[in-house]
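Dear support,

I submitted the protein below through the web form. The confirmation email said the job was done, but the results page showed an empty box. After a refresh the structure appeared. I'm attaching both so you can tell me whether what I see now is the final result or a partial one.
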Amino acid sequence: MRIAFQSVFYPYRGGIAQFNASLFRALENLAEVKAFNFSLQYPSLFFPGSSQYVATSDKADKIPSTRRLNSINPISYYNTAKEINRFSPDLLLTAYWLPFLAPAQGSVCKLLKKKTLNIALINNITPHEKKLSDYQLNKFFLEQQHGFVVMGNAIKNELLQYVSHAQYLQHPHPIYAHFGTKIDKQAARFQLKIDNEKKT
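What the results page shows now:
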């Protein structure tokens, strides 16, 4: 089986990129997987943090990816779809978490909907900072999918408000393995210079 995985990967930082890297590594044990990444995720004007990219000190999994998708350039939507189509996937897996990215990710899915099975892994539907356009953007993205993976009841219920007949698989969010081995509480307190008697 061939899986095209459309989302955000290294060199971008953040929880979604970390989650995607872990999922990519798990999937490549089962199938031929290719990552399709953003060339531009957010214009710097819209990004609230200091950098969208991993720092040299970060322990990021350097997933190899094709960086074509520009969130604000419609020409890149077509180019990304063409690139994915050349890979001839059996499945297009898209990790989705933000309505701002719906035009880009949803357009790629729409262009490929008749050629491949589109499955969306839904991290979030309602963003933390809500906007009037969220409903229509979410609806556009969700309507391009054949099925969904959700990791909790809240997301499942939101999904069903948008797509009442949605075919979905619910699986709990897995535990991350990239933070290192768990250590003893006393040893952690010693490393962090926290008094053993102090309530923390």
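Response: this is the final, complete result; the empty box was a page-load delay. The CA atoms of residues 142 and 166 lie 9 Å apart.
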